[in-house]
Design a protein that fits this description.
Blueprint: H1 3-15, H2 29-48, H3 56-63, H4 65-77, H5 84-97, H6 103-116, H7 121-125, H8 127-145, H9 150-162, H10 166-172, H11 174-179, H12 192-208, H13 213-230, H14 252-274, H15 277-306, E1 326-333, H16 337-354, E2 362-369, H17 381-399, E3 403-408, E4 411-413, E5 418-420, H18 424-436, E6 445-447, E7 458-463, E8 466-467, H19 472-481, E9 488-492, E10 495-500, E11 504-511, H20 513-516, H21 520-526, H22 541-546, E12 555-558, H23 559-565, H24 579-586, E13 588-598, H25 604-621, E14 628-630, E15 636-638, H26 643-656, H27 658-669, H28 674-703
Parallel strand pairs: 1-2, 1-7, 2-3, 11-13
Antiparallel strand pairs: 3-6, 4-5, 7-12, 8-13, 9-10, 11-12, 14-15
Length: 708
């Protein structure tokens, strides 16, 4: 067939596309699921025909069943809405071409659609799914009516499966072409997830305002262009600003506390009739924590089914721009030479995984302290420094002057009675910020080219057991430099705080496979629901509903925002675990579709030591949830953080109260009658087994979308 004939036919069907609306009901998820089940049934019967000679078309079907199944499951698992315009016109095209379709024909099809303006944005977005659905349906029908067509249909399906439809969308979609005219130029730099998120928001807003997507986008672009002329650096100059709705929680706390109070009434009132007053009071007191935890799990499970989680917008970076200049540091203590060597090996690996074409705006370093000591200088200090300096020099000779060593001298700690790095990790980050601003610090042992650090915008902080994957550094920077994520700092009650955008962004955290399988205990805690707000930071309730995350200490932070809101803010020697507290000032964003990995404790003892450190830190952070607190200079100041951040600080401490509450319930059950004891123990242990029940429900719900 001549391509000119095909183009002419495409022109004709796009001009009368409304005539194909009768095909709307034919191609649905339900029908595709039926087609896949029928094809699977046919394939099973063909396999059983061991002694019979199979027709060539039957052999084609058997040999390519995996392709049909994988493409069909892709539609069903993605719950893709099949575009009826694409399905109906694709069906007509296949009738015209005797089931032949290829990339050249697809280009002609979309070019014709663009000229006739016959397709809407959702048609371009799901065009591939539409063609796949039509081909699978025709393969099923061909086996019944015309088996000779099966090889041609499968060949066409193979062409569709390997064809990238994004270029068609970028070249011919009117909405996409209009987006590309936005004045700041940021849209074309956004990754596909971000672009698709803006288009979904545009579709939703257009539907609510009862207008077309194109006309609404034109209004937003006109507004953004006017803003760009007066203030080109304003967020309002970027069209995405008008497509990003504020996340206000959707009544989360009302539902949560309503369920909690109702549950407490249902549980406690019957206990009042069969027990003494003091048993009832103690029961209510000890039951409050597990009932609240169970209510929280149920409410979050419901919201996870009802509310779509939109990932943070980001730019797709091939190289790091000057406004994204970043220093990546691993925080650690220098205990021995072997540990120092392994730190630099890890730093080199992070560099190799994340280097870019020019590496001009990337730096890497070790942020280290000497171990605490009874003396300000230990005999091994110089030896450790010389060994570390040797490692840094080797790396800089091998890869260029992009590696740095930040090693502090010890200062006396009155609370510990020892000499150690000032304020441990929190002090190290504060002093690193001072160093980047060329202020006086205790970094007496610095090694590297200091001029390379000028105009550093961001710092990525990692622990010695944290792994940064291939290309993840560019992805982190891409999130931070997106215009809508840039922090906006305001002074509230005389204190600087981030009120818009994000001063720190962190990915989710998961245990490494090696550490998770090191022992039976590590396997158990690595895959449990748990109450660990630090290592299970990937849980996205706060990010999805409120646009805020819970900072766990590993992520990327804005140097200027950190300096203005956190540096020299909190009292010395009062806060051990500072991460969540810093996140409340910096406004933490959580990247819900990206994960780092770190090591999981392998024994109960090591896990409890870490938990003890975190609990102590959460207790020390708790006073900063009150309306007033004492600052670094002992002054009583009004708390500038929001009610949400106050709840986050309280919730961090509350999560640790579950275990003692259950222990007290077990003890109390000994002094009650059997029915009361059963209620206390059942309710007390509900937060442990409830996640497994909810996981089973999720699995069953997902099975509805499986084709076979």
């Amino acid at each position: 067939m001549e391509i000119s004939d095909f183009k002419n036919y495409c022109d004709s069907i796009h001009k009368k596309i409304d005539q194909y609306q009768d095909m709307k009901k034919k191609f649905t998820q339900r029908e595709i699921r039926k087609d896949l089940r029928k094809i699977k049934f046919i394939s099973k019967n063909l396999i059983k025909k061991e002694n019979d000679i199979l027709h060539s078309s039957e052999l084609w079907l058997l040999d390519n069943y995996y392709l049909i199944e994988s493409e069909g499951k892709g539609i069903l698992r993605g719950r893709t809405i099949l575009p009826h315009r694409i399905c109906s016109t694709a069906n007509a095209l296949l009738n015209f071409t005797d089931n032949v379709i290829n990339k050249e024909m697809l280009d002609a099809f979309f070019e014709s659609a663009f000229k006739a303006d016959s397709l809407i944005e959702s048609d371009y977005a799901h065009a591939k799914a539409g063609f796949v659905a039509v081909l699978i349906h025709r393969i099923h029908l061909a086996y019944i009516h015309d088996r000779n067509a099966i090889p041609t249909l499968i060949t066409s399906l193979r062409h569709i499966s390997v064809t990238d439809f994004d270029p068609f969308r970028k070249e011919y979609s009117p909405i996409e072409l209009l987006f590309q005219t936005e004045p700041t130029g940021y849209y074309v730099q956004c990754d596909d997830k971000t672009k698709n998120g803006y288009k979904r928001a545009l579709k939703k807003q257009a539907k609510m305002s009862k207008t077309t997507e194109f006309s609404l986008l034109e209004q937003y672009l006109n507004t953004s262009k006017e803003e760009y002329q007066t203030n080109p650096t304003s967020k309002k100059a970027f069209v995405g600003y008008y497509l990003t709705a504020p996340r206000k929680g959707y009544g989360y706390f009302f539902v949560l506390f309503s369920l909690f109070i109702l549950s407490m009434v249902i549980i406690v009132v019957p206990l009042m009739r069969t027990n003494s007053a003091w048993i009832t009071i103690l029961s209510a007191l000890f039951l409050a924590i597990p009932v609240f935890e169970s209510s929280k799990l149920l409410v979050e499970f419901a919201y996870s089914l009802l509310v779509r989680n939109e990932p943070l917008p980001r730019l797709e970076l091939d190289t790091i721009p000057p406004n994204g200049k970043t220093l990546t540091v691993i925080s650690s203590l220098f205990h021995d030479k072997d540990e120092i060597s392994s730190l630099f090996d890890k730093l080199e690996l992070i560099y190799l995984k994340n280097k870019t074409k020019d590496n001009q705006n990337l730096n890497f370093g070790i942020l280290a302290d000497f171990p605490e000591s009874d003396e300000p200088v230990s005999s091994s200090d110089r030896e450790f420094y010389e060994h570390a300096k040797e490692k840094i020099d080797v790396l800089n000779q091998r890869y260029g002057d992009v590696f740095h060593l930040f090693l502090r001298e010890r200062v006396y700690s009155e609370t510990s009675g020892k000499f150690m790095g000032y304020e441990r990790k929190r002090g190290a980050l504060c002093e690193l910020c001072d160093f980047l601003h060329q202020r006086l610090t205790t970094f007496s042992y610095y090694c590297g080219t200091e001029s390379k650090l000028e105009n550093t915008q961001y710092v990525v902080t990692l622990d010695c057991d944290t792994n940064l994957g291939i290309g993840q550094l560019s992805e982190l920077i891409g999130v931070m430099v997106h215009p809508l994520n840039k922090p906006e700092i305001e002074e509230i009650n005389g204190i600087n705080i981030v009120t818009g955008g994000y001063g720190v962004i962190q990915p989710g955290m998961k245990p490494t496979l090696r550490s998770a399988s090191r022992s039976s205990f590590s396997t158990l805690v690595s895959y449990s629901a748990g109450h660990d707000v630090y290592s299970f930071a990937g849980f996205d309730t706060f990010q999805t509903l409120f646009g805020k995350g819970v900072f766990c200490g590993k992520g990327i932070m804005d140097v200027e925002a950190f300096d203005l809101t956190v540096n020299n803010t909190f009292p010395d020697e009062r806060i051990l675990s500072h991460d969540i507290l810093e996140g409340t000032r910096l406004s933490c964003g959580l990247i819900t579709d990206m994960y780092l990995t770190d090591e999981q404790p392998s024994t109960v003892v090591s896990w409890n030591k870490r938990a003890h450190r975190w609990i102590r830190g959460d207790v020390q952070s708790f006073p900063f949830a009150f309306p007033h607190y004492r600052d670094k200079f002992g002054r009583k100041v009004k708390n500038p953080i929001s009610l949400l951040n106050q709840y986050i600080l309280c919730n961090a401490l509350r999560s640790w109260l579950y275990t003692p509450a259950v222990v007290l319930l077990i003890f109390l059950s000994v002094f009650t009658n059997t029915p009361t004891a059963a209620v206390l123990l059942t309710v007390g242990f509900t937060p442990i087994y409830l996640p497994f029940i909810l996981t089973m429900i999720t699995t069953v719900l997902n099975l509805r979308f499986q084709p076979v």
